[in-house]
Amino acid sequence: MKTTTDFLKTCPLCGKEYKGHPAISRVDNQTPICPTCGTRQALEGLGLKPDEIDKIIQSILKSNEL
Ligand SMILES: [Zn+2]
Predict the structure, then answer these.
(1) Which of 13, 33, 54, 58 is surrounded by the most beta carbons within 10 Å?
(2) Which residue has the higher pLDDT, 19 or 51?
(3) Is the pTM of this model over 0.90?
(4) Domain segments of the chain: what residues?
(5) What is the DSSP letter of 10?
């Protein structure tokens, strides 16, 4: 299987385009999703509340913009 990180990929969860290494969905262990959704699912797996997850995601997105 060819792994290319140069193409823009569309995340099936949030619909956003992303580049680079995808995360793998924890739902079926094979669907590539964007790193943001990968982080979200990882946090959900830790049992965090949705509002706590949103705060963490937002802070990650902000730090990526810098
Ligand atoms: Zn996504």
Answers:
(1) 33
(2) 51
(3) no
(4) 4-65
(5) E
